[in-house]
């Protein structure tokens, strides 16, 4: 089961798991589109609507999945939000810490932390009852290090945007929540790990791609498919003795 499955990485997660032989549950707010994407993966997959911030929605989704497949072996807590401002011209002003909207901060907490908590609570409990399961929490390099605001400066040296406090705070929380769950459910056969990806190149401005790439040891941003192998590894028995860990796949961003 992949939450936030219709996002850029969510689709790649689903494709990787399907290719590895899993019956994939494509879970996203837009249930109709989730069903369409699941059908594209194959008839053995399922698309469902899911609001990760609503416990009733999570419980209903779990019931729907277990009614279809009998069990849930893997949960990928991928659903998350990143800053998007309605008026791009206001992005610099609103993203500055001094002006960052409280409502935006609370929404990040609700989706990026509470959503992971609820899905893990409901579905992880089922895993503990069956005596096995793998929970994969998707965090970020910004859960481990502070944002380098310089990469958001254009060629003229102008700050176009600030990475807000909300994303690093919530992704940092995901890392320690992973450790909590791993310690709590280890004796019940439930493994819990984090996958921390780096930035993905996807229609950003050229100066940003160049600035970001210069900070990685591999000299580039990730492609959307660069995390598929790591995800399948954490989901499968190839990582059977791994829990409470943070698998960093960032092109060397955090290595120096």
TrEMBL record:
Name the domain of life this protein comes from.
Bacteria
Kindly state which keywords UniProt assigns to this record, in alphabetical order: Oxidoreductase
Coiled-coil spans in chain: none
GO MF terms here are: oxidoreductase activity, acting on the CH-OH group of donors, NAD or NADP as acceptor
* One Pfam family it belongs to: adh_short
Oxidoreductase: present as a keyword of the record?
yes
Which InterPro entries does the record cross-reference, listed alphabetically?
Answer: NAD(P)-bd_dom_sf, Sc_DH/Rdtase_CS, SDR_fam
Family in the record: Belongs to the short-chain dehydrogenases/reductases (SDR) family.
By its UniProt entry, which PANTHER family does this protein fall under? 3-OXOACYL-[ACYL-CARRIER-PROTEIN] REDUCTASE, SHORT-CHAIN DEHYDROGENASES/REDUCTASES FAMILY MEMBER
Instruction: Name it.
Output: NAD(P)-dependent dehydrogenase (Short-subunit alcohol dehydrogenase family)
Q: Which organism is it from?
A: Taibaiella chishuiensis
């Amino acid at each position: 089961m992949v939450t936030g499955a219709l996002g850029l990485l969510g689709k790649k997660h689903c494709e990787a798991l399907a290719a590895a032989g899993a019956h994939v549950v494509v879970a996203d707010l837009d249930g109709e589109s989730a069903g369409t994407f699941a059908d594209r993966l194959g008839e053995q997959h399922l698309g469902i609507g899911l609001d990760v911030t609503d416990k009733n929605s999570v419980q209903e989704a779990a019931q729907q999945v277990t009614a279809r497949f009998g069990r849930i072996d893997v949960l990928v807590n991928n659903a998350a939000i990143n800053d998007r401002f309605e008026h791009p011209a206001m992005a610099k002003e609103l993203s500055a810490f001094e002006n960052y909207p409280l409502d935006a901060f609370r929404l990040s907490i609700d989706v990026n932390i509470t959503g992971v908590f609820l899905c893990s609570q409901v579905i992880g409990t089922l895993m503990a009852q069956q005596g096995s399961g793998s929970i994969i929490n998707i965090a970020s390099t910004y859960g481990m290090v502070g944002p380098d605001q310089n990469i958001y400066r254009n060629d003229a040296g102008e700050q176009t945007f600030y990475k807000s406090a909300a994303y690093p705070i919530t992704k940092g929380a995901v890392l320690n929540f992973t450790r909590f769950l791993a310690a709590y459910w280890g004796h019940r056969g439930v493994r819990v790990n984090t996958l921390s990806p780096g930035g993905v190149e996807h229609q950003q401005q050229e100066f940003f791609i160049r600035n970001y790439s210069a900070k990685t040891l591999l000299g580039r941003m990730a492609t959307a498919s660069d995390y598929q192998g790591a995800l399948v590894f954490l989901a499968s028995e190839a990582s059977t003795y791994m829990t409470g860990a943070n698998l960093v796949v960032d092109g060397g961003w955090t290595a120096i």
